## 1
Amino acid sequence: MAIVVRLDRVLADRKMKLNELAESIGISNVNLSNLKTGKVKAIRFSTLEAICSTLNCQPGDILEFVED
């Protein structure tokens, strides 16, 4: 089982760059990049809320459950 981060797809749909999102929500570009590439083990709800608010999306648009 795995949770796959689809942030890159949502960013492309919104025509927004990663550094623009990072600046908008007040998180470092490195931390956001780690999230985008799936290198993190957890995400704060406040961060997820800020991402969803800025990108006008739902958490399910960013996170996807994939069975092995």
## 2
Amino acid sequence: MPVTDEAIEKIKSMIVTGELGPGDKLPKEADLAERLGLSRNSLREAVKALSLIHVLDVRQGDGTYVTTLEPNLLLDALAFMVDFHQDDSVLEFFEVRRILEPAATAMAATAMSDEDIAGLRAVLDELGDDPSVEVLVANDMEFHRRIAAGSGNTVLCSLIEGLSGSTARARIWRGLTQEGAVSRTREQHAAICDAIESRQPDVARAWATVHVAGVEEWLRSALGVPQSSS
């Protein structure tokens, strides 16, 4: 095992076993390197790598700390990774969204507070009668973000948010080129919101599936990729 990978695994082990917890400060570099049987250079590289994925927080002049390790923080790396994928690989992200978002929407129909549902409805009402595609997509992303948060599952919410940016370009492209895309999006959002508000998880799941699958199938057609059999 390369020495930096070994150093990463040893620090990871300290966190996984509970020796170091969220917010804890790591021992001084020299002491930790000696304790783990590592060179200070390999330890330093490991700390740098773990700070990039938000496991560690290096505070200049203060020391190195374990972060909160909350899902939204650790899954930031997912959003960074998906930004590199374009064209037909975006279809794979839509397929994952088609699995995750209906589940989150069904959960939101039972877990979302009345106040948060009112906020979701307000997002829909923010759109004018003839919004630009850019405004519509921004509204779309906020709408789905609130539903994911309303599921009550922070891991699921972070996964969905991480995937959201990768599919935004396709949604803009669809809005610019497909006739009726804007009105269809508004109608489907309203139906999803109605189902959540009336506490009908199965109906909410069904509308969310229709909504995400519609964009996915349009993109397949636009790219000349065979339609999904799932």
## 3
Amino acid sequence: MNKSLKTAACLLTLSLLQPLAGGSVLASVLPDTLNKPAVATELAHRTMLADLTRAGQRLVAVGERGHIILSDDEGNSWRQASVPVSVTLTAVCFADELNGWATGHRGAILATADGGETWNLQLDGNGVAAALLKDAQARDPQLVMSAERLVEDGADKPLLAIHCQSASQALAVGAFGMAVMTRDGGQSWQGLSAVLEATSERHLNYLLEHDDGLYIAGEMGGLFRLDQQGHAHNLDEPYEGSFFALTDTRDGNLLAFGLRGHLFRSSDAGQSWQPVMLDATQSLTAGTRLPDGRVLITDVSGTGWLSDDNGHSFSRVRPERQYPFTALLPIADGRVLAVGQRGITWFKPEGLR
């Protein structure tokens, strides 16, 4: 088993996502999850969920076994969407109230044009690898060998983050520096071998839009900025451990966080980072900026850390139910929804004062 891939994928979602193996072995034992629809269950909101976002006034969350669930009442009730795959889904984004994408294991990219009610599979890991090989062949012969290895492995590698730039344009990144983008609503996907090269094939865990660019957090200290042409630029790397997520502050600074409570703050768009002292030794896995400008970060135990001074210092807060979280989302009534190992819970307003 590829230890670095297992570590990145499992730690990213707090050992919640299925461990991965080498392509030739995995292909022989995996069920056909890319062609098996997600099974409907009333307990989908209690299973492992990896990400959530807004589609207009609707909330959309994604997770294991292809589960995508929707809420039209700010998270008080949930129902399951129709999904054509049963792979674990790791990330979701919407460009507007109707158009969005989700991504996950085996390189799956799903699209919706009806606010998440129904989804169709646009790309899988085989298509991702083929797109990267085509781009490498046209761009840099030295990258062809890396892309060919991905093709040989088959559809076993996960995509771990996705960003919707518009109803026609989206970008997804994942294991081994894989990156693909569409500019035509998903009718075609272009491989970004330049990202594969710039990231040294490190696993890419998170995407954040900030100011004039997209910022990427990855394994082995990897922090990058992606420009409009799809080129990744290396940022300062303040330590060698993995970063699992990024968020920004009211004053325009960046926060990057990851293994064993490591948290760093940048006031110059990632050119340099300063450590933030946090009384946490467990990995930091999810974060968000609240409407009032405060920042909430959670660790692997489910403990929350709240800052009201733009990320200079943090105090401990606790959710309604405590378990490992993978994503946070502020909602209209002052709560912060949290998803993770046991589905959905929240931080109540009174607990965030």
